[in-house]
Design a protein that fits this description.
The protein has helices at about 1-15, 25-40, 50-55, 55-70, 75-100, 105-110, 120-130, 145-160, 165-175, 180-210, 210-235, 240-250, 260-265, 275-300, 305-325, 335-340. By secondary structure, the chain is an all-alpha fold. The chain has three domains: about 1-45; about 60-130, no CATH class; about 140-340, Growth Hormone, Chain: A. The two termini are about 30 Å apart. It is a multi-pass membrane protein. This is Bifunctional purine biosynthesis protein PurH. Belongs to the major facilitator superfamily. Sugar transporter (TC 2.A.1.1) family.
Length: about 350
């Protein structure tokens, strides 16, 4: 929600400072906010889960009490302890069972299995993975995190391949074909307002309807609206193109906008949340850069067919999400992570 509020603020400043030399005001406002953010970061507390994971339990409890506004945080920290010890305990128990079943050692197990990798060795390898520190450099090497890592990458990268940022980048030029510069600036700002309301709606209904329904219905709506936008621009149907701009944002904001960020925190347990989230955010910005720098060159080469590229990306991502994204509503992070084993 803070991201879309920032987008709305930028559109509003742009509307007010779109004449003469005043465009520099919008750049100055961004610089001012960046400096303010840099100062405030110094006062931000460290993540309590991170502190707990590093063995700094008293600090974690202090920060958690401050954030939650309650004195008793034992029930929450208990889930973190269970998450850290549960998987390793389960692997250890399975390793003991394998050893009991194969008293003659790993070589016998391998012979009985037709020369495959020994079961005991598999269990030992999983124990080593569970005990490893999860970083951005090894998260994709750990089997239980590989699938959610790939899904988070596709969620964030695919969000940008939907073409949503082209709507914000070039909506004013589309609207100026029908309206004056002043009115088109206002209408562009209203796109930001719609984005805020759609995201706020998602915050209200996501726990009621679930992540998957919001994500998949949002992608479906974008397939239709992006197609209409391409048709409107290609056939010079200005009204259809203008309406489609709003339909694209109305489809995106309640689902494909916020849900990838939400799932990015829910598909990993506490050990991998930081590394997984970092990869997801990097994929999002890389996708944004690729779309921003390639849209105009593609538009010059293939014209409005560039929107067919966005539609194809939406369909491909939607199919993958339908098949592989689990529903996370009502489940703890630890329960969700167990489903990827």
């Amino acid at each position: 929600l803070s991201i879309v509020l920032g987008i709305l603020a930028a559109l509003t400043v742009g509307m007010l400072a779109n004449r003469g030399p005043y465009w520099r005001v919008s750049v100055g406002v961004g610089l001012l906010l960046a400096c303010l953010h840099l100062l405030l970061v110094a006062f931000a507390p460290e993540s309590p889960r991170y502190l707990w994971q590093r063995g700094r339990e008293p600090e974690a409890r202090t920060v958690l009490r401050r954030l939650r506004g309650v004195a008793d945080v034992d029930s929450e920290t208990a889930t973190w302890t269970a998450a850290a010890s549960g998987p390793r305990l389960a692997r250890g128990q399975r390793l003991e069972v394998d050893q009991a079943a194969c008293p003659d050692g790993p070589s016998t197990a391998a012979e009985e299995d037709g020369g495959s990798k020994p079961a005991v060795a598999d269990g030992a390898e999983e124990l080593r993975e569970e005990g490893a520190s999860v970083t951005i450099f090894n998260i994709f090497r750990i089997a239980r995190y590989r699938r959610p890592w790939l899904l988070v990458l596709l969620l964030q990268f695919g969000q940008q391949l939907s073409g949503i940022n082209t709507v914000f980048y070039f909506s004013s030029s589309v609207l100026e074909k029908m309206f004056s510069s002043e009115l088109s600036s206002i209408l562009t700002m209203l796109i930001g307002v719609l984005n805020v309301f759609g995201t706020a709606l998602a915050a209200l209904i996501v726990d009621r309807f679930g992540r998957r329904p919001l994500l998949l219905s949002s992608i479906g709506g974008m397939v239709v609206s992006v197609t209409l936008l391409g048709v409107g621009l290609g056939f010079k149907l200005n009204i259809l193109a203008a309406v489609s701009l709003y339909l694209v944002v109305a489809s995106f904001a309640p689902g494909y906008g916020p849900v990838p960020f939400l799932l990015g925190t829910e598909l990993f347990d506490v050990r991998a949340a930081g590394a997984g989230g970092s990869w997801g955010l990097a994929a999002n910005w890389i996708g944004a850069f690729i779309v921003a720098t390639s849209f105009l060159p593609l538009l010059n080469v293939i014209g409005e067919w560039v929107f067919a590229v966005f539609v194809a990306a939406l369909l491909a991502c939607g199919a993958v999400f339908y098949l592989y994204i689990p529903e996370t509503k009502g489940r703890t992070i630890e329960e969700i992570s167990e489903s990827f084993k």
